[in-house]
Design goal:
Elements (H helix, E strand, L loop, with lengths): L4 E3 L2 E3 L3 E3 L22 E6 L12 E4 L2 E4 L7 H8 L1 H4 L6 E5 L4 H14 L4 E5 L16 H14 L4 E4 L8 H9 L4 E4 L3 E3 L2 E2 L4 E2 L6 E4 L4 H14 L4 E4 L5 H10 L1 E6 L2 H4 L3 H15 L18
Parallel strand pairs: 3-16, 4-7, 7-8, 8-9, 9-10, 10-15, 15-16
Antiparallel strand pairs: 1-2, 5-6, 6-14, 11-14, 12-13
Helix pairs in contact: 3-4, 4-5, 6-7, 7-9
The protein binds flavin mononucleotide.
Flavin mononucleotide (FMN) binds next to strand 4.
Length: about 300
């Protein structure tokens, strides 16, 4: 039985990774789960300099999901390399480094730094953050900026590039095409959806930042639809994520068109979820006599399509 997949030139022993920001920098989870059994470890977003993040409360539970506004807290490139890379580079599985910036130039510089480090599996571009030079417009919801940021990172590195798509657009297809045309080796779908919740007793927003990102099972059907649309439009692989709690959810993403999947919010209440998903995919393949995991990708049968 073959579970391995490729994202650009990065080989994953199985199609399951973890979603950026829900798994620390890997080491924090290493006593709870055997990291070497994952397809890849994906770390929290890194920009050039350290970031303190938003005031608390930064998270709130909502029906079938959660809101977060962490504010992209992180150690910066140097802090990451010093504190977390010595552990990650010894792993048998690739590390996907999630990167971001506030200008196109910053993205490119961060990409170049990780290229020079050697041994990184792939870079995932978080484009759901504001551009300070363009009045705070998000890179991922502006086609011109998205094309510029992917192209600049493409020039800065030969590492596989995964562009993490924002769901906060009317139609995702043109954005996915822009990412592919600018040199992205894959796209990941989806990032959190902008949302808000209010505590009616205090009349205050549940997050200090007021607005946060919605994640967890409540976003899964949205993510499945976006993956399905994207996979029909571009040849590059799609990494599916949004509310995966078990193998059935992951298989649903693969049937919609995902080559690989990521477990996010579920890591907070059951850190074993990614391994349970891998075991469940294996069982499903056995039961359905599927020899290669790639047979499941985009295998949904839409009547009349
Ligand atoms: C607390 C938290 C922090 C996150 N931080 C990042 C991040 O730094 N970079 C990024 O691209 N996505 C980040 N995400 C988005 C996730 O990687 C993922 O796209 C999203 O949570 C959907 O998957 P899920 O429903 O399985 O959690 C974060 C999500 C959560 C819940």
């Amino acid at each position: 039985m073959n579970l391995s997949v490729k994202i650009g030139k990065m080989r994953m022993q199985n199609p399951v990774t973890v979603a950026s920001g829900t798994f620390g920098y890997g080491e924090e989870y290493s006593r709870l789960i055997d990291l070497n059994q994952l397809g890849a470890v994906t770390v929290k977003g890194i920009r050039l300099n350290p970031v303190r993040g938003n005031p608390t409360p930064r998270t709130a539970e909502v029906a079938s999901g959660m809101l977060n506004a962490i504010g992209l807290q992180g150690p910066g490139v140097d802090g990451f390399i010093k504190k977390y890379w010595p552990f990650l580079r010894e792993l048998k599985v690739p590390t996907i480094i999630n990167i971001w910036g506030t200008t196109v130039e910053e993205y490119a510089e961060v990409a170049q730094r990780f290229d020079a480090l050697g041994g990184v599996g792939a870079l995932e571009l978080n484009v759901s953050c504001p551009n300070i030079k363009e009045g705070g417009a998000q890179f991922g919801t502006d086609m011109k900026l998205l094309g510029q940021v992917v192209a600049a990172c493409r020039r800065a590195t030969r590492l596989p590039l995964i562009t993490k798509m924002s769901p906060n657009v009317v139609r995702i297809l043109p954005f996915v095409k822009v990412a592919a045309d600018a040199g992205s080796d894959a796209v990941s779908i989806m990032n959190s959806y902008p949302a808000m919740a209010i505590d009616i007793e205090t009349r205050r927003p549940k997050l200090a930042n007021v607005i946060g990102g919605l994640t967890g099972p409540c976003i899964k059907p949205i993510a499945i639809k976006l993956v399905w649309e994207a996979a029909q439009a571009v040849k590059i692989p799609v990494i599916g994520m949004g509310g995966i709690q078990n193998a059935a959810d992951a298989i649903e993403f693969m049937m919609a068109g995902a080559t690989a999947v990521a477990v996010g919010t579920a890591n907070f209440y059951e850190p074993q979820t990614p391994l349970q998903v891998i075991a469940g995919i294996r069982n499903f393949m056995k039961r359905k006599q599927i020899g290669d995991v790639s047979e499941m990708i985009r295998s949904v049968q839409v009547v009349g399509a």
